């Protein structure tokens, strides 16, 4: 409203959220609301289970015993057994390792590719930037699941190829973000000073530009991990990712299909595990975003 | 609305506006009272950020999100009114920077017709009335303009359109919030002349918000000076220019006179 | 200016706009073959340069023992002994006559089979798009209207669940509830609209969650614009302001996002089809991917590209129609 804009923007702009990094990291917990706290607890528990699963599963997740197939839950098999007599709880725990592990690898690949490609585009600028961003645009607009299906078709079935396919279909989001930040900082004095002091472009990038991108990359990655988890298990559900005997949540749901009408719990538990994990990661991502990067509010859906 | 007994007086009483900053309530407008009479222009002046535009908006309960009116009432001819009932009916508003005051995806016709529709004006006469008002506001080629979108028009044209919509509403009072800011000088002069002519002819009661003492000199009958959310001085325009009592008023005048050394003070 | 002349001028400007749109659409349509050609090159190269040998896959799928002699024969039969460019030219020449080769598994022509299954998939994705928009728009408006109130919290919860729910699991849950326990809807097959509800709902949950959040944010942003304040000051009712000045403008980003949803929904349909025995292209495509049935993968991917590009063209046209700034900028450019 007219000069009211002027009157208020100056006053209200400082409102809202505290500036990024205004407080120490430890206060994330103190300031977070209960959904974010629960999400943090669930995420930590998942990571712990995933890491410890080779040692702490109550039974061997792959031990077949047809004599005890499709047992209901009891004191020995807390969630019952599946159609081959394997302990469902143990398989869920082992599945956490596969799910989180593959997502972690995929995310590492995506971040590496995003930083290198986006950094190159932003740092070099000009034609290189143009060319890279044109390619990135294609990856940004095309539906990820269809692209991932094609990549698996080209590379072949299997978890490794699924991870590669997911990395190939997701790097562009990160590259674009890194490029944007690098472009906005490239002309600043401290970059020029660093170059004058004799640092190579790569050194300058790692020392001065990379840290600036970290907060936003972390937020985007946390928001994306759940989405990628759904991708991996979706492809495994279709039989294109993790293959049968390995315990993975998508595979477990696919295994349970024949029994879905008679033993619906077989399908229920792995789906619930997947749902809770993804929800926890998304909630954590939202909380991190609100805290580290309020400007990243625009929904990032793909 | 244009009954034989047109309202004579609009009074804003004890207006208070605050916002919340870092969990603490901050007062933006503090106990402001204003008295606008038909046929007279009251200028509300002050440095930018002093709360004068907010006074205008909040008195009609149209303050931006995050800002709330805490006290105050608005009365017409002594009868207190709900702000929502008089917006666009008894009080028309024109704003500065018309480019962003019009909805970019709607045409002038759509803008022009929704006001009468909201007031329940008979459908047959709506367009007639808008056309007449546009002609009064100095817009030629009405048909073409009604089909245009805001981004196809110049700032001056948009400001005229805004004035035309205010006229078409038939409201006896007009809140003009920095109506000439952001326009180039020649257009400013034309718009000022237009406002002067129309408000005099229609006998409108005008509340003119501005920080430009030149505009005050051209249009105002009385002046209220605002500083940090309070009214600090109210006087006739001649007295303000000749005998400013408050240092803030003197500063405003000095700033104005140093900008236009050639111009006389009234 | 006479009244007639004035009226003519109005007609003139409208006709001018129609022409602009026609030219805009035509230009985009001409771009379509170019994009398909580029996509076909990429798809072709990716499949040929992939880690496995098509001839070997061909023999495996035809159940022929892969002796060196058989491999040579297969290479020659499939044209794999030619240089890459010649292979592509050959493929393109046939593709221009709509011959996309034969499936290694069934030995049937690829395109007719794909086109046989495709309509069911598109129907499912289309239904899911309708559900997405029909549910998310009211939710988004509701949440924005009562910002930070209970409705906003409810919509936030729904959206948080929606973006975290695996669609294939949701499909099973819906089938358990509505087919097994309540017996309201058929669990399997494609038989009338009642069989469409559950798979479409399972697919659309995620996109409708994303869209409700997007629309909410977009509405709140639009509500802070100056033209909304002025609309209120002109005495428009809260509903008119919300509809004509907030929602009208807030829907523009939703139109753009819809282009993205189409791709996601088709992808979701490919996954969900197998759960509900929906006779779409999904199972055919997935088994082709599993078997590395190259001609099918190639044709399927190209079809998906074509559908996606066409859908985005439609979205762009709708956007240009909805946002005069874009429409008239296109006019300035042409």
UniProtKB/TrEMBL annotation, chain B:
<keyword id="KW-0472">Membrane</keyword>
<protein>
    <submittedName>
        <fullName>ATP-binding cassette domain-containing protein</fullName>
    </submittedName>
</protein>
<keyword id="KW-0067">ATP-binding</keyword>
<keyword id="KW-0813">Transport</keyword>
<keyword id="KW-1003">Cell membrane</keyword>
<keyword id="KW-0547">Nucleotide-binding</keyword>
<dbReference type="GO" id="GO:0005524">
    <property type="term" value="F:ATP binding"/>
</dbReference>
<keyword id="KW-0997">Cell inner membrane</keyword>
<dbReference type="InterPro" id="IPR003593">
    <property type="entry name" value="AAA+_ATPase"/>
</dbReference>
<dbReference type="InterPro" id="IPR017871">
    <property type="entry name" value="ABC_transporter-like_CS"/>
</dbReference>
<dbReference type="InterPro" id="IPR003439">
    <property type="entry name" value="ABC_transporter-like_ATP-bd"/>
</dbReference>
<dbReference type="InterPro" id="IPR027417">
    <property type="entry name" value="P-loop_NTPase"/>
</dbReference>
<feature type="domain" description="ABC transporter">
    <location>
        <begin position="12"/>
        <end position="253"/>
    </location>
</feature>
<dbReference type="Pfam" id="PF00005">
    <property type="entry name" value="ABC_tran"/>
</dbReference>
<keyword id="KW-1278">Translocase</keyword>
<comment type="similarity">
    <text>Belongs to the ABC transporter superfamily.</text>
</comment>
<dbReference type="InterPro" id="IPR050388">
    <property type="entry name" value="ABC_Ni/Peptide_Import"/>
</dbReference>
